[in-house]
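Field log, afternoon session.

UNIT: design team B
ACTIVITY: writing a sequence onto a fixed backbone
BACKBONE:
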């Protein structure tokens, strides 16, 4: 691809080849320079020859072992109209989580019998709301009562201790759905629950440096195995994050695919 933009290598990911046209794609390598298996989520951005963003796509590469390199391919997909000139591609973002803490919203049920993952969230006027989702994909009733326990992490997976984690979304804003008193929940196989994460990205001069924490380690209840999700916290200088209680999610039907790995 002629005239390729910058962003060909980032966070252990390297674009090794690409082709343009209406079916533009990129070949890439993922190398794990760490000491434990990691699952990578890479965002690729496809650009016109003039640098205009056409579309983006995400690729997840699971369980790359330490010191190993794996090869993959990312395709742009169909666009409403054919772009003029050569299509370029760059690596917009690379995120990685320990493979044994990777979230899952589908496929084979984890050994724990539950899936925990985060959605893409909602943002309006500086207010951010992301929901954690828990799905009982096992064969037994799963009990919850309280708030998820969380730990914020920076880009290097180091704890962020400068942010106060408060109970209830109303600690940040009302009307987010992350309020209320925790209630005992008995989730039968196929049932789901959710809990809201609420924050503002306000930046005030002289208060301190803005805090960005891409990752959060989640324990759905004390003693549970942790799951690391990627809500991309842009907390500004607020220093606060509200966490809502687990609530029953009645918007989805029962799960029929996958089986618990017990």
């Amino acid at each position: 691809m002629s005239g390729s933009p910058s962003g060909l290598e980032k966070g252990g990911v390297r674009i090794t080849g690409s082709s343009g046209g209406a079916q533009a794609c990129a070949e890439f390598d993922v190398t794990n320079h760490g000491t434990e298996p990691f699952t990578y989520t890479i965002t690729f951005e496809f650009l016109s020859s003039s640098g205009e963003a056409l579309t983006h796509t995400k690729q997840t590469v699971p369980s790359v072992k330490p010191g190993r390199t794996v090869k993959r391919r990312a395709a742009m997909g169909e666009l409403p109209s054919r772009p003029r000139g050569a299509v370029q591609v760059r690596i917009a973002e690379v995120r990685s989580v320990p493979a044994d803490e990777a979230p899952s919203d589908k496929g084979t049920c984890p050994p724990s019998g539950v899936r925990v993952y985060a959605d893409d969230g909602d943002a309006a006027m500086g207010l951010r709301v992301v929901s954690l989702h828990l799905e009982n994909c096992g064969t037994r009733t799963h009990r919850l009562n309280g708030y998820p326990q969380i730990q914020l992490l920076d880009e290097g997976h180091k704890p962020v201790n400068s942010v106060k984690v408060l109970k209830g979304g109303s600690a940040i804003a009302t009307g987010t759905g992350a309020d209320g008193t925790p209630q005992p929940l008995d989730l039968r196989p196929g049932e789901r629950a959710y809990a809201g994460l609420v924050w503002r990205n306000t930046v005030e001069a002289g208060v301190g440096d803005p805090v960005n924490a891409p990752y959060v380690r989640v324990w759905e209840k004390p003693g549970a195995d942790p799951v690391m999700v990627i809500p991309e916290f842009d907390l500004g200088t607020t220093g606060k994050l509200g966490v809502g209680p687990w609530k029953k999610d009645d918007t989805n039907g029962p799960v029929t695919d996958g089986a618990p790995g017990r």
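LOG NOTE: The radius of gyration is 20 Å.
NEXT ACTIVITY: expression trials, pending approval
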